[in-house]
Amino acid sequence: MERFDYLVLGASHAGLEALRAIRAHDAAGSVAILDRESVLPYSPTVLPYVVSGKSREDRLALRSRGWFDALGVDYRQAARATAVDTARATLKLADGKEIGYAKLLLATGATPAIPPIEGLDAVRFHVLRTLDDALALRDAAGAATHAVVLGAGLVGMHAAENLLRSGCRVTIVEMRGQVLPGYFDAEAAALVAGAFRQHGVEVLTGRRVARVEPDGAGCAVHLDDGEARSAGLLLVAAGVVPETGYLAASGVALERGIVVDEFMRASAPNVWAAGDVVRTPSFFNDATPAGGILPDAVEQGRTAGMSMAGDPAAAPYPGGIPLNTYSFFGRRALSVGRDAPADAGADWEVLTRGGGHDDAGYLKLVLRDARLQGIFGVDVLFDPGIMWELILRRTDLRERREALLANPEDTARALMSALWR
User: Fold this and answer.
1) Which domain does 302 fall in, by range?
2) What does DSSP assign to residue 273?
3) pTM higher than 0.85 for the full model?
C-alpha cells in the first residue's frame, strides 16, 4: 500500500493553498493530492461563465501539471474517496485501492442541496456545481424557451441572467423574502431584483414550489398558491451541503460539515479539513453565516497546510467574514461582513446613502462601537479586501465613518495605508 507524509483530498482553492503552505515549510515530505475530477483544478465560481460562453472550458485551470511537478506533488485525477479509516490512517478510493497517510487534509467541498419537492425525482433537472454540470446546462439552454430557476442565491441569479441571454424566458422562485438572502441587505437585493425584472425576468420571492410533474419535453412547476409555470429547463439552485458521505464511521465529527478547531484540525488524529466541507465559527461569534466563499477557503487552506507542516508561523483561523462580489447586467453589487440585527442596541449605527432610483448608487455601512461590521453597495466602488481587513482588525472609525460613507474607496485605502506603515 502506498503511503504519503501528506495526503490532500480535494484540488480546489483550499487544497491548492494548503499544498503551497506545506511546501513552504517542508520541501522534502512526500505529498499527494487527489482530485475527483478528470480535468485540471478549476474554481466553481467560473461555471456561470462557462454556461454563458464567456469562459472556455479548456482555459479554466487554476494550476498546470507543471506546477504540481515543480512542487514535487503527486497529482492524481478521477480519484474519488469512498471511506476514511482514521484508526489505520488510510483512505479508500472508488477503485478499491487504499492509500496511507501520516497527515490528511479533507478539502472535498460541497454538493448541491436537493430540496424535498414532490415529483422532483421524476423530472429532468439541472444543478450547477461541476464543469460537467455547466456544459450540460449550456447545451440545454440552447434548446429551451422557458426556464425556471429554484433559488435566488448567487448561482441561481448568475444562471438566470445567462439563461435570459441565451433566449429563454426565465422565472426565478425564491422561498425567502428577497433575492440573494444571506449575501446582501434588503435594499441592495431589491435593486438587484429590480434590474432583473426590468430585463424581463419574472422574480417570485416569498414563494415555494409545491410539486413538479412531467409536461411534454419539460415539466410543470406548481407553486404554493396554485399557479404553475411550464419549464423546458429546470435548474435547482437551492444551495449546497458539505461533501461528507465518505466519512461514515470514520471517527471524524460532523455537524453541518466537518467540525474543526482554530487550526483546522478535525476531531480525529492527524486529520485537518478546509473549504466548503467544514463548519467554522463566524468571526462575529454569532449566527452570521460563515464559510462558503473563496477567500475563506484560501485562508482555511493556508492555515491547515501550515499547521500540518508544523510551521511556527501558523496563526489561528479568525473565523468567517462573508465577502461577496456580484456582477449583473453590467452593474456590480458588493458585500462584506454582516448586517445589523433586528434587536440592535444603541451601540450599533447604520449609515446609508442612495438607493431606490438614485443613479449615484447605494451604500450602507453597519458599525458597532464605531467599528465596521458590514458594508453593502450597488454601483459604488470600494475594495472588498480592504473592507475585510478593516473588519478583521476591528479598526476604530469614529472619526472617519462619514468620510467612509461619502468616499469608501479612497477613505478605506488611506486607512489601510496608515495601518500598514
Assistant:
1) 2-111+241-309
2) E
3) yes
Residue 146 lies inside a defined structural domain of this protein: yes
Dist. CA 261–CA 316, nearest whole Å: 9
Give the model's pLDDT for residue 289: 58
At residue 25, what are phi and psi to the nearest 5 degrees?
-115, -25
C-alpha cell, 186: 434588503
Residue of 334, 306, 303, 305 lying closest to 320 (CA atoms): 303
**What whole-number distance in Å separates Cα of residue 85 and Cα of residue 91?**
6
Q: Which residue has the cell 425584472?
A: 197
| Number of folded domains that form the chain | 3
Q: What is the mean pLDDT of residues 33-39?
A: 96
Model confidence over 249-271: pLDDT tens digits?
899 999 989 999 999 999 999 99
CA distance 411 to 400: 8
